[in-house]
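Consider today's protein:

***
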Amino acid sequence: MKILIMNCGSSSLKYQLLDMEDGKVLAKGLAERIGINDSLLTHQVNGKEKVKIQKGMKNHKEAIQIVLEALVDKEIGVLKDMSEINAVGHRVVHGGECFTDSVLIDEDVIKKLEECIDLAPLHNPANIEGIKACQQIMPNVPMVAVFDTAFHQTMPDYAYIYPIPYEYYEKYRIRRYGFHGTSHKYVSLRAAEILNKPIESLKIITCHLGNGSSITAVKEGKSIDTSMGFTPLEGLAMGTRSGNIDPSIITFLMEKEKITAEEVINILNKKSGVYGISGISNDFRDIQAAAFEQGNKRAMLALKVFAYIAKKTIGSYVAAMGGVDVIVFTAGVGENSSEMREFILDGLEYLGFNLDKEKNKVRGKEEIISTEDSKVKVMVIPTNEEYMIAKDTEKIVKGLKK
């Protein structure tokens, strides 16, 4: 079975074509500047050089058409024709409370996705547009929606309800939803596989650390708490996002700086986090270089704040689960920065692990980085959200044929 994975942003489209016989990525790419001048498709077939295609893309439908043309092209493609695509899996950011798992897309599903636009106004409209465009171009191909929020729908009510008047939950569904669910699900399942233990027997803390960061408590294979909330702004300090702050700071800044609530939220989303503290960059590589090589004090402070909040969150999830068996690091920083992993883990050895500093030098590869005699296992597992989306899509499509 060949499955096309679509991840539509407001002006971009990431895609991968996977052969589910062996899980191999046949081709992948990125369409950029959709609806803007100088639209560009970067397309790569497995084992070959990237190809850049400069072509106008007025909307997502045109972008998807160009992607499909590239996939069946005699020189740069991997398919004889479009009939080889057996299904399409769509990444959808927000499923609200409607969707606790991935789902076959029909008119009712699209209607419910449109009802969730208020919860993810930047992401869901683009996701929906991508789905509708694919349906028009490939009307007979089954399509599946895989949600960033779905994995966290197993959280108990006391973990997702905010201590504000309950009527706001009833009226507007204001609650913690959590994000990065596909990543947290993948790495927790993979951790259980690597350890050759049933996931139902494990208490796992998954740390998805990058420009956007979140940590999740996975007990018996289910998410019971996660650091992101009503929006991806809550939780850890991130690349440009503040994470948790005193809400009164918003009105304080409005009064002092004579700016609107919207402008403050923009500052908290785009000018804060490690970028706001360091004043250098939202790229952790730049901040680490400034901190360790140039002795920049604000850069070092940014790294310490990031690590401290992550460490506190891990500790709180150990308390929530009544222990921990596995701590997993994933995503850009989690997979590639040995320094940040060491910063975060320093002082948590009482949980039952010792860090193997030699193994911790690993970048972007699966590795158990705790010593062999550690009761709690610490692991690096590169995330693979596209594969997880493809597996969910395959499972649902195969279920149709029974």
In short: The longest helix spans residues 297-321.
